[in-house]
Batch of 2 targets.
Target 1
Amino acid sequence: MQTLIIVSHPTLADSNAQRFLWESLPAEGVTWHHLESVYPDGQVDREAEQQQLLQYDRIIFQFPFYWYSSPALLKQWQDVVLTEGFAYGPDGGRLAGKEFGLVLALGVNEREYQAGGREGFTLSELTRPYQAMAKKCGMVYMPAMVVSQFDYLNDSKRKELLVAYQQYVSKDTEASLKTTENWFKIQLQSLGKAGLSEENQQLVEHLIAVLEDNREHLDDLAWTLAQMEGNQLG
Amino acid sequence: MQTLIIVSHPTLADSNAQRFLWESLPAEGVTWHHLESVYPDGQVDREAEQQQLLQYDRIIFQFPFYWYSSPALLKQWQDVVLTEGFAYGPDGGRLAGKEFGLVLALGVNEREYQAGGREGFTLSELTRPYQAMAKKCGMVYMPAMVVSQFDYLNDSKRKELLVAYQQYVSKDTEASLKTTENWFKIQLQSLGKAGLSEENQQLVEHLIAVLEDNREHLDDLAWTLAQMEGNQLG
């Protein structure tokens, strides 16, 4: 899996959180793309950005949560790059099926983002514009990853963060596994219709059956695991 | 009442909707502040913007709804101007009590902004970041004004839009009336404590009583009006 992390931060060098995330990156499969470094004049290159996006399976927006949204340059990137005919609309849908994630760095404790908290709204509410964007582009929206008040985290919490971040940017999700399976199934089924020999058609049907058996087995395991975790907690 | 309309649109001259709104402005009490004209280089002047904000009772953000948010320059404006110590935090709260409005120009029919519609989320959901901003600044959030697919509106609909816009930018709301009354009451009450002569204290108490009577009378009228509208509709 290939992941593109689109980072927007106007003063990246001053951010301990962003430096830590950068140092936590896995060695392979991940590209770090800091917009303010690439475009210091704010002139986003639509063609280059669109071509780049097509090469990745997972697209992540990573930024400090300024006024409940991204810094301005990432918004500019959205408006320039995600055009009708590319991201949506007739002949669009070029990002459909890719995964979309958010890595949000908060200056305020995450607990404040709830009814009655100082910020008053949940992060799920405040990130609706990104959910709507993913929906319009046909992308699979991942639960956001939140880095809350990084400078106050102790070493143990930072190690947890490192692992969580590595997984967020590189680990297959249940959604990506299912997407891959479905992709194989569709490919195999279209093979079956393409005038294969009877022997090969049987092989294809067999492969599809194996995929479906595996999926059932995985779902069973996930269910059992959830029960065990429930028992431990209860 | 003085209203500041902060307009953000990267290609304002090409927008029929924005031209129409500009031509609809009342002659007095409203300032049109187009960010891309004032700051073609994107360098927002914090000090000038903050001083300007203080002179107005109602602040409006007006923009085309690009990717469920504003164009980038308005976001830049928020991040530069609405600083801790001015808009919020210790010694902040300088915008508290002002009214905050949104004028959103949509390229898509407003009906699509609902569960099951093509956009999938309501405008109230998608504008949560502005609601949270108003809350943090202690501003009174007005229901948003929506201009949906302006180019398709006939003359009659455009006339309705003109009136609705003039009212949105200049008419006292129930909230602004109550705010004004409360402001007077607090002023009058603090006068009463400031060692006035007994005669003047009686005058002040009389004025407060008149204000409260007026408010009760207004509330009664509003209730009666709502009943009548209900009967007409039913």
Target 2
Amino acid sequence: MKIAVDVMGGDFAPKAIVEGAVIAANQLPEGVKLVLIGKQSIMLDILRTMKYPAHAVEMVNADDVIEMGEHPTRAFSQKPNSSIGVGFKLLKEKQVDAFCSAGNTGAMMVGSLFTVKTVGNIQRPPIAGFLPLKNGGYSLMLDIGANADCKPEVLAEFAELGSLYTKFSFGIENPKVALLNIGEEEQKGSTVVQAAHQLLKINKKINFIGNVEGRDLFDGKADVIVTEGFTGNVIFKMGESFYDYAAEKGIKDPLIDRMNYEVSGGSPIIGIKGNVIVAHGISSPEAIKNMIFLAIRQVESKVTEHIIESYED
Amino acid sequence: MKIAVDVMGGDFAPKAIVEGAVIAANQLPEGVKLVLIGKQSIMLDILRTMKYPAHAVEMVNADDVIEMGEHPTRAFSQKPNSSIGVGFKLLKEKQVDAFCSAGNTGAMMVGSLFTVKTVGNIQRPPIAGFLPLKNGGYSLMLDIGANADCKPEVLAEFAELGSLYTKFSFGIENPKVALLNIGEEEQKGSTVVQAAHQLLKINKKINFIGNVEGRDLFDGKADVIVTEGFTGNVIFKMGESFYDYAAEKGIKDPLIDRMNYEVSGGSPIIGIKGNVIVAHGISSPEAIKNMIFLAIRQVESKVTEHIIESYED
């Protein structure tokens, strides 16, 4: 198994990324290799000072970088030799099993859509977030930022994809799928959410349990929580700020500790024909290490192959 | 000053409401009276067992009740003798200075729109929530649930109303107004939020400081945070669930403690020609008492008169 990592993406790239990759390299399971993508000379300079098993780390040169603030579509098409461009090329050619980046999320979405492409008729692949639960587990929330505006049909796609992901990745039979809303009743909420409720209710591919509200998020009422990327993004960032606040104040708690973005390390883009994980721009080495292990678990679970199969029927 | 309280509205009405009113009645400032609205016989039954200064509590009979699940517009027009209907009648006739209810929020919105009416050309009065800050203060977030779908123009109205409210109620000169978004850059976010950003940028009535994100909510970067009622509602309910969780786990912290809905007790509907406060359906006596004191402070500040004046110019 080969996990590709974009060394140039992220606020603290390339140093934090290489450091995280090295921590991971020292703990990799048998048969897993990392493929670091970036400017070779820079990677070598950083790696020179570090200890890691050389057989577990390959390097692939990429001369260009897509910066955090660049226009995703334009940058992706104009910079085929960027670390993100090269990563998607390797992924598409199946030279690597997964591609991870803490860089320009928009460019990662563009690569997902136009290089590896979506499964079936999926219109808008969501970014899925791992929402920590009081009981120690996670719910999958999607979307958490890729799609700020969603049609009801797109929310229904998220529901199906989330159901498949939790089934094959978390091993949950018949996952409970809920719609995030501002009331329990089906006529509550925005026009889009009301229409989505009706689509989810009649969708036979999912086990729809109805609406959940902001107060239910950590209760584990649902395995999958469907929402537009706008509210999903606000929820995750608010959770992170709780963790930061608690850490500042010396509050230690198992639920709050898992609101730290570093713990899951990244978020998969799902509904595409490949394993793509994106991470926070501010990612620390610890976060990068955890993103790599998330990618390994995802590849091992074959969740992406299962999702592709489900849409081929 | 007279503060009217709907005794019949709320999950634990009438008992919790009367109990909260009695706690308040025992602490009222000079010259403030409560006007309890509900079925007289029920109110008398509960009050009989309680100690309170009789001169500070009046009762007004209302034979009907708008239930929590009823269709707001239909119920409001078909039940003029409901406690909510009677409350708005008293408010419109200026027999009371404020009207508070933990009952059907939709019916409270309908009463606000069609009885006391909006100021100026305001289309959609928001419900404003008090978001606790790390520094001990509050930001005003609006809307937190009345308007799940908002046009950009409506978000601009929220910005103006929030600015006026914090100026006259919190005493902040030139309040900082921010737009909740999923990135700092103005081209981020949903179509509506992007358009709203442009409207806020050119609005000379407010001090617009740009976007804030989910991670900034408790930092006090802005005095006013503008958002659609969907996301605003999710944020407040998520905050409440944090408080509940922390309370369960014995975590005591000044910020988290103020995420308890009971502390502010209620949320004003603003942009209307009267003082209307709505509260959580689950309101406890403590919450009701605090809602009454919120109403008293709001009446004392004359914020509603100031807002009306601003729109008459």
